[in-house]
Each structure stands twice: as structure tokens, then as C-alpha cells.
Amino acid sequence: MLIITSGAQKSATTAGFQLTSIMAAANYAFSQRIDSEEAFDQVLARRLFRSDKELTAAANEALKSGDATDDAVPVIIKTHGYLQDEVLKKVRVRDVLLVVSVRHPADVALALVDASENERHMENPRFKTYNIEETAASIAWYEKCLIRSLKGSPYIIEYERLFDDPTEIIVGMSNNFGLPVNEDVARSIVERYEENKSMYGEYNKGKPQRRFDELSDTEIRKIEALAPVMTELSKL
After folding, report:
1. In Å, what is the CA distance from 8 to each residue of 56, 74, 79, 96, 107?
2. Which superkingdom is the protein from (predicted)?
3. How do strand 155-158 and strand 48-49 relate by DSSP bridges?
4. How far apart are CA 225 and CA 140, in angstroms?
């Protein structure tokens, strides 16, 4: 099994990555009749982060080596990048499964500013958008990546659902992928996720709909205009 988890930075892609990994490990433990802890350790050892330029090669390597077969330890790849044609084709025929995290673009913009401020003192900061206006290019790029990903009919994790009921996410994802994960197993997956939840909030206040407290209506509408698809999906 090969699963790619994707989405804009600061849209809870790490949380989606973790939930997907735990779900895949639970399914692997069930199918191979092995201990769940052993399965989880094996899946963790196979997780990757790849840029869009590296993603195609990583996916091809997993598929050609047999790492993506039903009996193999699941491979989970996280990316914030653009899906190239070769990867998208594999997603469309379900050789590769795809999970996409979605958050309202104004909330993403605020979180990007937070991250930039926290890394301002670093020699090589990952984030360099120090005000809302400077996030425009990033938001527009993430919109382009999202539209591309939607062509693969991914399973979508809306940001607010992580706070409302993660169990529902697991059940929905499992059903979408045709995996035998019932509600009891889903709850155990969420319990493991909740145990380490604090690690997913780095440089991110993690507050749903924080835009209404920190931005004007005009500022919100301006950002929404940059990413109408992301806006619509985040409100589902």
C-alpha cells in the first residue's frame, strides 16, 4: 500500500500524515495477524517526506520494488508539492492512494505569518512571510496544487473535522480506501493520535476559524479570492 498525504503548509498536513499512518498500520496488523505495536513501528520506519520534484521518483521506487503490494509494509509519503502527471495517473487508477488536508486559506495565511515570526531569528528559516500580504503567493500556489490533487479524487480531511471528530475521519478514509477498519478500531487509532497531538502544533495556534478574530471581513474576502476552491472545501 502506498499513500500520499498532501496539502498546504499549516493546514494540519502533519496531523493528517499521522492519522493516515496509524490507520495504515492498523490495517497492516489486521491483514498480517501481527501485533499492532509492531505494525506501527514498521510503518513509522517507512514514512517519507518528499518535495514535488522528489515525489515521482519516490512513488516509482515504492511501486517497482513491490513495497506497495497488499502484503508489504505500507509506505506513507507526505508532500506539500504539486502532483506531476506520472503520480497523478497512478492515483487515478488507485495504484497510489491520496489524502489531502484542507484549511481555510485565511487561517493558513495567519499560521504562515506565525511560523515566519517564530523562525525570524534562524539562519535559514523555512518561512519568510511576515505579514498577511506576503502570504498571497503561497496561498495562490497551494490553490493550484489543490486543484491538481482533486483530479485524483482524494480523500479530503477538512481542518475543523480534526477538532470535531477524528474518529469520523478514520472511518471515512478507511471506507474510501476499502480497508476493514470499524469504529472500535477507529477509536483506538484516534486515541493513539491524541496521545501525541501536541507535536502537531508547532508554530500553529491550531484554532479553528481564527480568521474571524484576527482579520477584517475585507482581508478575509481578499484571501478567499486567491483560493476559491480551498475556501469552498474548507467550509464543507
Report:
1. 18, 23, 9, 20, 11
2. Bacteria
3. unpaired
4. 9
pLDDT, residue 203, reads 44
Strands of the sheet containing 2-7, edge to edge, are 48-49, 75-78, 2-7, 97-102, 155-158
End-to-end CA distance of the chain: 28
The predicted-structure confidence for 172-213, as pLDDT tens digits, reads as follows 888 888 876 777 778 888 887 777 665 555 545 678 899 999
Distance CA 48, CA 58 (A): 9
Q: What is the architecture, at CATH level 2, of domain 2-234?
A: 3-Layer(aba) Sandwich (3.40)
